[in-house]
Each structure stands twice: as structure tokens, then as C-alpha cells.
Design a protein that fits this description.
The protein is mostly beta strands. Strands 1, 2, 3, 4 and 5 form a five-stranded antiparallel sheet that branches. It is globular, with a radius of gyration of 16 Å. The two termini are 25 Å apart. It has two domains: 91 residues, no CATH class; 33 residues, no CATH class. The chain contains two helices and seven strands, in the order ββββαββαβ.
Length: 126
């Protein structure tokens, strides 16, 4: 994880990973314990994290609904938990695949926008 200059984005013990699927829908990617952090250059802070055990059956299956208010890049649970709820539990988890090459891609325009805007090296599939 990378942060912003001279400021820790996660001054807490744990973080929840969510991956945007579509508007107001995020995929649960796990709860991580923050082990530490260190400054990496002038503009980045790198966090060392550890996935907490007991989540294997949930990661990639839980879809969370949340209507975002504001533009904050990082939401703080104690301030932003209102309005988060589980909207779906998928029968099997979504997985991450390696990019198969430009000639083998068949995805929606929305997903392509996310890949380009977030510089994603791989994509989710079912």
C-alpha cells in the first residue's frame, strides 16, 4: 500500500480492503492488520500488512453496498460506517487473472474504464 507525502493514511490497527465493482458496489478483499509503515521517497509511505485468518470463504464473495458521500480517498470506519451493508453473497469467489493480451479481452466498457483509470495490471472474473 502506498500513502501520501508525510502523512499516514491509515493511523489505525486494521484496514478493510474493498475493490470497486460498479457504482455503489464493492467487493470484500479482506481485513488486514497493519504491522508497520515506512517512508518510501518523498511522496509515499509504504504499509506492511497481514491478512487476518479465517476469511478465506468470504474474500471475493461478499458484495458491499455503500453510497459514497464526498470524495475522500480513504474512508474511516468510525466516521463512515453508516450506509454500508452486505448486498450480496456470491456463490463462488471472484478471482484475479493475469492480463491475457489485447486480442483476448472481452470486457464491458465500464470495467475497461476502471482498468485504465486505476492502472490495474489484472482484472476480476467470475
Amino acid at each position: 500500500m502506498a500513502g501520501t507525502p508525510n502523512r499516514r493514511n491509515f493511523p489505525c490497527d486494521m484496514v478493510i480492503g474493498l475493490i470497486e465493482l460498479r457504482r455503489n458496489k464493492q467487493l470484500f478483499a479482506g481485513v488486514y492488520k497493519i504491522l508497520g509503515h515506512q517512508k518510501k521517497g518523498e511522496k509515499h509511505i509504504e504499509y506492511s500488512t497481514e491478512l487476518l485468518s479465517g476469511q478465506d470463504e468470504l474474500i471475493g464473495r461478499i458484495v458491499v453496498h455503500h453510497e459514497r458521500k464526498g470524495r475522500a480517498a480513504y474512508l474511516k470506519g468510525h466516521l463512515n460506517m453508516e450506509g454500508f451493508y452486505i448486498s450480496e453473497i456470491l456463490p463462488k469467489n471472484l478471482s484475479v487473472e493475469e492480463f491475457p493480451g489485447y486480442n483476448s479481452v472481452s470486457i464491458s466498457f465500464r470495467k475497461l474504464q476502471i482498468i485504465i483509470n486505476q492502472n490495474v495490471q489484472s482484472f476480476l472474473c467470475q
